[in-house]
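Is this the right way to post structure tokens for a design question? Let me know if I should format differently. Anyway, here goes:
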């Protein structure tokens, strides 16, 4: 029993359309679930823009100044982190994989990320000390709120 070329091409076309619909559905679902018009905060877990919205004008200016004062110190770390990512892309794209270089670059990238996280933590502690207790609680609850929303939405999926 021989299958004709036309039937094979028809089956391939149907399979291709099905796969594209599945991928498209997944992408649309991700866009809807996560708000396609919002920037993601990538590696960091605190939404400072959302948190600042609960502060009054004077406190917002104080926060902006603190952020401006510390932002310059972070730039070299972010630049270094970006360079590590670019290096990894080159290493993974090379004809032959240099596992030693890949592992070392990953280790360097993680070390840089830890430096960034440590710096941000120190800045957050400095900010926390400067806010009144009631504002501090509301500020950090609002900043970490998106994590709770995500966690709660995932719990709803399990039911």
């Amino acid at each position: 029993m021989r299958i004709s070329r036309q039937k094979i091409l028809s089956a391939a076309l149907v399979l291709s359309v099905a796969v594209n619909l599945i991928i498209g559905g997944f992408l649309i679902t991700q866009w809807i679930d996560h708000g396609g018009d919002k920037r993601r905060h990538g590696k960091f877990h605190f939404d400072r823009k959302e948190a600042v919205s609960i502060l009054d004008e004077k406190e917002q200016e104080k926060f902006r100044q603190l952020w401006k004062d510390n932002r310059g110190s972070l730039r070299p770390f972010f630049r270094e982190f970006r360079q590590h990512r670019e290096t990894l892309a080159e290493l993974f794209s090379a004809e032959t994989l240099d596992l030693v270089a890949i592992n070392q670059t990953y280790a360097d990238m993680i070390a840089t990320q830890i430096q960034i996280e440590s710096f941000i933590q120190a800045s957050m502690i400095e900010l926390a000390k400067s806010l009144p207790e009631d504002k501090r609680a509301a500020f950090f609850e609002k900043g970490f709120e998106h994590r709770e929303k995500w966690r709660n939405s995932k719990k709803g999926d399990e039911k």
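Format looks fine. Someone answered above. Worth noting: Residues 39-43 have pLDDT under 50 and may be disordered. Helices lie at 5-34, 48-52, 57-93, 99-130, 133-158.
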